[in-house]
Amino acid sequence: MSNGKKINLTINNKKIKVDEGTTILQAAEQLDIKIPTLCYHPLLEPYASCRICMVEVKGDTCDLFPACNTKVREGMVVETDSERALKARKLNIEMIMARAPAAEKVQEIAKELGVKKTRFEITDPEEKCILCGICVRTCEEIVGANAISFSERGKERKVYTPFGEPSEACIGCAACAFFCPTEAITCEDLHGRKVIHSELMLGPSTAIRVPIRQAVPMVPFIDEEACIHFKTGECKICERVCEKEAVNHEMEDQEVEIEVGSVILASGFKPFDPKRIPAYGYGRFDNVITALEFEKLVNASSPTDGKILLANGEEPKAVGIVHCVGSRDKKYNEYCSRVCCMYSLKFAHLLKEKTEADIYDFYIDMRCFGKGYEEFYHRLLEEGTRFIRGRVSEVTDMALTEKEEGKLIIRVEDTLIGAIRRIPVDMVILAVGLEPGLDQNEIAKIFNISCGQDTFFLERHPKLAPVSTFSDGIFLAGTCQSPKDIPDTVAQAGAAASEALALADKGTFELEPITAEIDEELCAGCQICVSLCPFTAITYNKEKGVSEINDALCKGCGTCVSACPCGASQQKHFRDAQIFAEIEGILVE
Amino acid sequence: MSNGAFEPRLIGFLCNWCSYTGADLAGTARMVYAPSMRIIRVMCSGRVDPQFVLKAFSEGADGVLISGCHPGDCHYQEGNYKALRRHRLLTKMLEQFGIEKERFRLEWVSAAEGVKFQHICNEFTEQIRKLGPLNWNGGKHEQSEA
């Protein structure tokens, strides 16, 4: 906009020097002089339809101008609050008041200008739209979707989609509603989405955001799915407003190839999805939440500032914690997820600390296996958490008594007293178990390692090589190998790191002792073996007329050995003669 | 065998990485399976030479099992596919020798499938028990039983 040329002007008797091309409104802003606006938005081209920003320019032929789209000129003398300007504004706001009497922003400006009511005829007392066109311009200039426009003229003028039907061009970004100065368009019209407890973020999020508040590195990212730019190629508001020019929409995911000697797999777990147990009502009842959601809620930087609140904003009076959700259950996962008992106890403790609620812990067995864990359990028993032994059968909102009205009722068999109980609570926390990651099998295939029956990665030996795998140089750490808590994970990761370092430190690599070898005397040079080798370890020596094996490449599978028609190829430790002898030996009575 | 009932003798060629570990798992988990299965470890099911199978039958085995990793899981990338091809061809040849194709099996057992291995052993044993002794190569088997 600027070519470096400066313009001198006077606004309300104050002198200022601004870039050429600046508008009176922008210049006034620099002097902290407030001019009321309605149809102006700093990110859109000025439109000057509301005429609330009228200012008087002294000594000009036509002396009233809208400040938002009038460019400054050398020597200009502007009065923003002159009698004539104010009179024009008052008349204009009266007309807008007649058009959109329900718009709060209009009433506000009218009050500031001292206008109490309009002299013009009010057509619709509910109307909020002032026809400023911000929504239309947003959709065109920023979003680039052109889904809405003005239709009709004069009194009939309105913002409309083509033919008044839901527009196919609309991408549902809600930018029009976000920019609307009078709330004539609202987000609820477009979404109607629930805010609290609706997702792990515990609230709606923007397309550009920091993933979590404790993220490392603390850098925002652009969610391509939600970002308008990736839908229409326009917008880029974030790029425009970022003074450091740090936003780059052209940046793409990159595949980087790094050569390494060993790999530590620490691909983690995914929490069990409690929707798989419909009886627990997760997804149906607002106040049935998972452990991770509770963790998010109780965190000091949560949307509730760490307060434990129900979906309606009230504090719970009774909370139930359900153990073993998706764990120790033949229908879902047979294994124990190890961490749930202890984090459930932690939750019970936090609830006791932060609320007055009665806390019920529904457990099958308490598995307090670690250092100081059993002591913590006893502390909770003394604190007054009510422990009920039994697997919860159902969470329901069907009240049988008055006391249960409006509550969530947990049905459980208390196996210590041998009775079915119904416990009304306000909030249910599901202690979901740990499951192998979604792409566990794919990772296993890439690294040529195995998964156990539960799909966690299989270690080479449960006792003697708990961090190694069947592939040399691939090590395991953390919950990708089995469910485990943080201390165990850290210990295992340390072991995996030192195993990897030990390989690097040695500087030499031990070859597989079980490789194949070819007896030159016997080899007829048929080259059957060459085509069979999956590692291209065998080459044909034309001079000698025999095949040769590269020991460094041979992994010792023995496929070539069993295909050799002359018995020239033999596998060390698994020679034909050795296996024949084994067969003979094993079949002797 | 002491009571005179026919107890089949089965030879299993198990690959080191999946099936042998699977069998090991069955063992460490103390699963009980038919004692008729006698296991020979090879590094890969692709190492199983057709001669081994013929040798086993001629030495008096009543059934032979080759077991390797599931397709796509081979520690050596494709050894189990080679085993599959050989199994197809060898089955045809064995039939020409008069050996029923049921006596020669190929199975995929992963390192985690101890239960599957137990099941295969039991089922194979039952199948061979129904078929009766093979008595190939001059009834070596009978001699020893006498």
Question: What does this molecule look like?
Answer:
The complex is a heterodimer of chains A (589) and B (146). Chain A has 589 residues and is of the alpha/beta class. Chain A folds into 4 domains: 6-113, Ubiquitin-like (UB roll) (Roll), CATH 3.10.20.740; 133-250, no CATH class; 261-510, FAD/NAD(P)-binding domain, CATH 3.50.50; 516-587, Alpha-Beta Plaits. Chain A is 25% helix and 18% strand. Chain A is built from 16 helices and 25 strands. In chain A, helix 2 runs antiparallel to helix 3 (104-113), helix 9 runs parallel beside helix 10 and helix 10 (340-354) packs parallel to helix 11. Chain B is an alpha/beta fold. Chain B has a single domain (10-140), classed as Rossmann fold. Helices cover 45% and strands 16% of the residues of chain B. A 4-stranded parallel beta sheet of chain B has the order 2-1-3-4, sandwiched between helices. Chain B is globular and about 40 Å long. The model of chain B is unreliable at 141-146 (pLDDT under 50). Classes of the chains: A alpha/beta (589), B alpha/beta (146).
Q: Key features?
A:
heterodimer; A: 589 residues; Ubiquitin-like (UB roll); FAD/NAD(P)-binding domain; 5-stranded parallel β-sheet; 25 strands; B: alpha/beta; 5 helices; 16% strand
Give the number of DSSP strands of chain B.
4
| Pattern of helices and strands of chain B | EHEHEHEHH
Q: Examine the coordinates and then state which fold CATH places here, giving the name of the CATH topology of chain B.
A: Rossmann fold
What is the distance, rounded to the nearest whole angstrom, between the alpha carbons of the first and last residues of chain A?
99 Å
Question: What is the number of helices of chain B?
Answer: 5
At CATH level 3, the topology of the largest domain in chain A is FAD/NAD(P)-binding domain
Give me the side-by-side strand order of the main sheet of chain B.
2-1-3-4
Mean pLDDT score of chain B: 89
Which percent band covers the strand fraction of chain A? 15-25%
Largest beta-sheet characterization of chain B: 4 strands, parallel
Largest interface, with Cβ-Cβ < 8 Å?
Answer: A-B, 33 and 37 residues
CATH superfamily of the largest domain in chain A: FAD/NAD(P)-binding domain
Quaternary organisation: heterodimer
